[in-house]
Amino acid sequence: MSILEELIFMTESCKPREFDLLKLFFQEPEPITENIIIHQPTIEDIILYGEQRFYHMLNIFIGNTTMFRLQLWQAGIDWNKISNYELFCSLVTSLKQEDTSIIFGDIDFKSFSGDWVKTDPDGNTHPVLYSAKHDMFIDEQTYVDIAHYLRTMFNIFPKNEWARGKATKEAMIWEEEENLKLKKDKSYQSHLLPLISACVNHPGFKYKTKELKEIGIFEFMDSVQRLQVYESTSALLKGRFSGFIDTSGINKEEFNFMRNMYANENGDSPKN
User: For the chain, which end, N or C, has fewer CB atoms within 10 Å of the first or last residue's CB respectively?
Assistant: First the structure.
């Protein structure tokens, strides 16, 4: 088995468990384990916390080796030869309790250590994070469940991109470095502001600016997606009835703006 195949297998070895999207929509806390409960922030929570600081923290939980490949490469680590869980273990212990309390309450991730292993029913050992302070393990399955839940909450599904051959890897790293140079002299660009601006200026958006602060981030991201679905559906219907578009080969679901946007449960981005 090649390194690439091994990584794909390793990534798919733990599947995220299913969770209740309706509870997520209504901001119900989600128990990932008995001791790890995720709380959903509102728009105002993120504003008060500091958006740039918030997404920097969030990326450690939802990111993958592709997202951090430049930093890994500069540290002498090939992103093709490290798992997402190993990356998570190396980063999460840098976070202070006040950094993560907005989502994880009183869990102190700095108290965790990666110098522990657990033995599965087959007798195989696996590295895990353990906190003596909390008497709590975070194994790979727990990490996968946390990452998938938060990715769904924020509608952020980073791509996995692997490479074979030194030349290909170096070309990808060069591109990352060039992109970083372009961003270096630019101030932080808000992730939420363009979405908020688009929504509050859309005639179909029901929240006023002050009301928007009170809703959960999942409900807001759902609204962003639903407005896009509504607009694309309206355009298709207008094109069909005007005769300017041949809709015979278009899936009938595309004409239903109330269709399920969360049908894909394999950890990838839901399809509209």
Answer: N
**What amino acid is encoded at 82 in this protein?**
I
For the stretch 144-190, pLDDT in tens is 999 999 999 999 999 999 998 999 999 999 999 998 888 877 888 89
Q: How far apart are CA 220 and CA 214, in angstroms?
A: 10
Residue with token string 């790890």: 36
Alpha helices in 63-118 (DSSP H): 69-74, 84-92, 97-104
Q: Which helix (H) or strand (E) holds 114?
A: strand 112-119
Tokens of 58: 């969030």
Nearest to 126 by CA among 75, 89, 78: 89
pTM for the complete prediction? Answer: 0.85
pLDDT tens-digit map of 225-267: 999 888 888 877 777 767 666 777 777 777 777 788 875 544 4
Q: What letter does residue 216 receive in the DSSP assignment?
A: B
Q: Locate 118 and state its tokens.
A: 């657990």
Task: Judge residue 147's burial from the number of C-beta atoms within 10 Å of its C-beta, 0-12 exposed, 13-18 middle, 19 or more buried.
Answer: buried
253 burial via Cβ count (<10 Å: 0-12, 13-18, 19+)? exposed
Q: Is 143 helix (H, G, I), strand (E, B) or coil?
A: helix
Cα separation, 29 vs 84, in Å, equals 25
CB atoms within 10 A of CB 76: 6
Whole-angstrom distance, CA of residue 200 vs CA of residue 62 = 27
What's the mean per-residue pLDDT of the chain? 87
